[in-house]
Specification:
With 309 residues, the protein is of the alpha/beta class. It is built from eleven helices and eleven strands. The N terminus is likely disordered.
Length: 309
């Protein structure tokens, strides 16, 4: 028997946004009802909530947050709803988000929430996890947010040009044409947050620089957001060189997946070496994502889990 049963309502302005928030056949409302033990009665732009007082408050906050997300999203997925509910239950991290010119990004898993907290507060963050966990996307989105807000002057992104069975020298074209295939995931992340014309203009004005790691040698990177992607394929010497480029008013995010190392078996990964050497430095943060943080197609999560076993 439910105690302190109370009925409450929440009103919204735009019915079209509500359609996105509700999901197909009101599936998102069903998730809220199940997770928070409430009953929802949508009618027009008003939703009545029936349940315990404490659950009504969480439900209202959840619905309000989902409505805000629906304003900038074409679809609200099950994982989004569950993530917001958990954040509201814990009464923390509910305001964590990254705003870029094109969208607003919220963490969709517990691991992503921790990652977002760390990159907002630490100058150097290592994020290690399998494919599909949003490592590069979140880092690039945060960099774009800081650049467009005027908090930094430049974004610098590097990625070791190492692939199993391929050498850059055998690929056709100049240096840019050779490395572009390796950097395609980074370009895709920029396109998610900025218009293509804006990305091209920022690259032409050298506000965004994407280059092989060797091109950073000898430089001090001030007022910059520096990202090293696929760091598991660096050597210890490359990793040390990269990390020591950090200058004033700059941030670094190092991403990698230690299960996908393409180096020769005899060569040690710079990422593994860095974790071993730097883990006791309090000002450097290490965030570990798992298959539970995969946000691509649901099958990707199952694939990652199967390979881990």
């Amino acid at each position: 028997m439910i105690k302190n049963l109370e009925k409450n309502i929440i009103k919204f302005e735009d019915n079209n946004i509500l359609k996105i928030m509700f999901g197909v056949f009101h599936k998102n409302l069903e998730i809220i009802e199940k997770e928070l033990n409430v009953t929802l009665f949508p009618r027009g732009n008003i939703i009545s909530i029936n349940g315990e007082i404490k659950n009504i408050l969480i439900t209202k906050n959840t619905l309000s947050k989902l409505y805000e997300r629906a304003k900038v999203s074409e679809i609200i997925e099950k994982r989004d709803v569950e993530s917001i509910i958990q954040n509201m239950k814990k009464n923390n991290s509910s305001k964590l988000s990254i705003k870029t010119p094109k969208k607003e990004i919220w963490p969709r898993t517990g691991g992503q929430t921790k990652l977002l907290k760390e990159i907002l507060n630490k100058e150097i963050v290592f994020v290690i996890g399998p494919a599909g966990t949003g490592k590069t996307f979140i880092a690039v989105s945060h960099a774009v947010s800081m650049l467009t807000s005027g908090l930094i002057n430049k974004i610098i992104i590097s990625r070791p040009a190492v692939e199993a069975g391929e050498k850059l020298g055998f690929l056709p074209g100049d240096l840019k044409e050779k490395i572009d295939p390796y950097l395609r995931p980074i370009y895709d992340s920029f396109d998610e947050n900025l218009s293509k014309d804006k990305v091209i203009k920022l690259i032409e004005n050298q506000k965004i620089e994407i280059a092989p790691i060797a091109y950073l040698r000898g430089r001090t990177l001030n007022n910059s957001y520096i990202i090293l992607d696929e760091a598991q394929n660096t050597s210890p010497i490359q990793m040390k060189m990269f990390l020591t480029r950090l200058g004033e008013n700059s941030r670094m995010v190092v991403t990698g997946d230690i299960t996908q190392i393409d180096l020769h078996p005899k060569n040690k990964s710079g990422l593994i070496d860095a974790v071993s050497n730097l883990k006791k430095i309090k000002d450097i943060s290490f965030v570990y994502l798992t298959e539970n943080d995969v946000v691509r197609h649901p099958l990707v999560q199952k694939i990652v889990k199967a390979y881990n076993k």
